[in-house]
Amino acid sequence: MKFLHTTSILIYVACVCASCTTQKKVAEDGTVTRTRTPITTLKPNAPNPSQSVINASGDGLTMGIPNGNDLRAGSSENATAIANNAISKVNGPMGVNQQRLDSLTSVDFMNKIAVHQMTMIKMSTLVQSKSPDKEIADFAKVMLASQESEQVDLKKLSGYKNVALPATVNVTQQSNNLTPESYLQLVIEDQQNAIRFFEVGNKSKDPEIQAFAAKYLPISKKHLKEAQLLSK
């Protein structure tokens, strides 16, 4: 008798649980359909999900993302911020991401090109005194003259646009490990990125930006080919 009593209780509890998660709908024709109650009512665009929800979704595992309410997952803006945070750790000063290129402003363009110029000027100056390879040293001399000329034009453009450019760039790590080979690789990567920026600038509706980009796009392509040939 005790066994039957216990079994009856268990069956009753199971029925109660099932009724909490499943609802029956009876149509006029007598058809019965069941719909499950959602586990949570939190929608994907919830403005401030709990940390446990963020961790479950994977966003809470992203390194460098603060847990404060100023940057929560759940909206397109915050998803973009999380993605850009990860991208910024991979890309260097001239790193290029297509999403960022699509929204590049004139100020962004000038700042990126300024960093590109200063990097090339510093590294080209340094490699001339370090390289035992005369061909690479001569190439660095050409790069230096080209970047200095480009820098003069950019400063004129930024002055006309009233835009303050970066004053310096940190290349300590690259300088300490600089070799003729690493210099060529740096030039290749930097010119590839510069070309992408110039291609975007060449489509700009700003006539001054467009003219500047159109002038230096073919020059960057030329330097890229020269560096690639020397690196073989």
How do you describe this structure in short?
66% of the residues lie in helices and 4% in strands.
3D architecture notes:
The chain is mainly alpha-helical and 232 residues long. The protein has a domain at 107-231: Up-down Bundle (Ferritin), CATH 1.20.1260. It contains 9 helices and 2 strands; from the N terminus they run H-E-E-H-H-H-H-H-H-H-H. Strands 1-2 form a two-stranded antiparallel sheet. Strand 1 (22-26) and strand 2 form a beta hairpin. It is globular and about 45 Å long. 20% of the residues are buried. The model is unreliable at 20-27 and 34-95 (pLDDT under 50).
Strand content: under 5%
Question: Could you give the order of strands across the largest sheet?
Answer: 1-2
The gyration radius over C-alpha positions equals: 30 Å
User: What is the number of E strands?
Assistant: 2
CA-to-CA gap between the ends? 90 Å
Output the number of helix runs: 9
| Annotated CATH architecture of the domain at 107-231 | Up-down Bundle
Classify the oligomer: single chain
Portion of residues within helices: 55-70%
What is the global morphology? Answer: globular
Main sheet summary: 2 strands, antiparallel
- CATH class of the domain at 107-231, named Mainly Alpha
What structural class do you assign from the helix and strand content? mainly alpha
Name the CATH homologous superfamily of the domain at 107-231: Ferritin, core subunit, four-helix bundle
Q: Uncertain runs with pLDDT below 50, 5 residues or more? A: 20-27, 34-95
Overall average pLDDT: 71
N-to-C order of helices and strands:
HEEHHHHHHHH
Here the CATH topology of the domain at 107-231 equals Ferritin
